[in-house]
Specification:
Elements (H helix, E strand, L loop, with lengths): L1 H16 L11 E18 L4 E5 L2 E12 L2 E18 L2 E26 L4 E16 L5 E17 L2 E12 L13 E17 L1
Amino acid sequence: MRRIGMSAAVLVAVLGSTPAAGSTQNGAWAISADVSTVWFGGGAEDPAADITIGPGPATAFGLGVTRVAGSVRLGVRLLRLESGLRLSGEGVTLTAENSGFTLYELAPEVSFRLVQLGSAGSNLRLAGGPTFDLWQLAGVDDRTRAGGRALVALEIPVAGGWIGATWLEGAVSGSVFDANELPSEYERRSLLRGSVGVELRYGW
């Protein structure tokens, strides 16, 4: 938690001190809300039985703030999701909905415009940055993990300062499990995450 709090403080200081040169159509500052469908892979594996366990599919909700800084956009996103325990093996995947995972994520990011599409102001953007995760698991202690994420987003002007976006994201972090809570036959694996989402942003 201390690492997450320090990262947030540093990012806020950077955002507040960066000049707004090169402000784009959606303004120097913007706030956003998003919803996404998330899938996980990895977490822990039994190599002999070819079975993996980890968080299952989930719906995530996020809030963000960004600021234009020259040719790039700096921002931070807060994400929350809840999911069940997933067990995968031999072509079968089972999810126990009552074995809960809750994720709170702080994700600073830098975003670049790859290409402008047409004359209406639509953009294809590439974004990425580190992630700082707080996982809460039913019946065990909370744990923090660090990782990274990258996404490609298509942004489309809606009206006034409003921008709509849809995006594809990939992320990786440390295993959600601690070594002492797994059966002896299981080994920890990096946690992989993929998601597709939509976002609505207002800039000024």
